[in-house]
Amino acid sequence: MYHAFDNNVIVVEDPREVTCHEIAKFLQTNPNIPYEFQDCINYAVSKNSLVETYLGKSPVNNNSSKYRDIADRFKQGLVSDGLISIVDMNPLTLILSFC
Fold this sequence. Notes:
single chain; alpha+beta; 3-stranded antiparallel sheet
């Protein structure tokens, strides 16, 4: 919390960032193994209530704009400083490699 103008201000997390973080955490626990994005996002939903509130219950609809927005973040390399690679585009498959 921040203290400004004699009031406490609560900073709300961006659910898209939280979702990306949860997926990156999952891939870090299983490096060098490819996972379909659909499986990664459903894992994130199962592990974080903010992600579930944002995307809905698992299985997440892969035609939703929210799903596509998060997938685009990975496609553009905006997550994990480029450590997460795309193995396949259809279906979107991700891998975390340290090499």
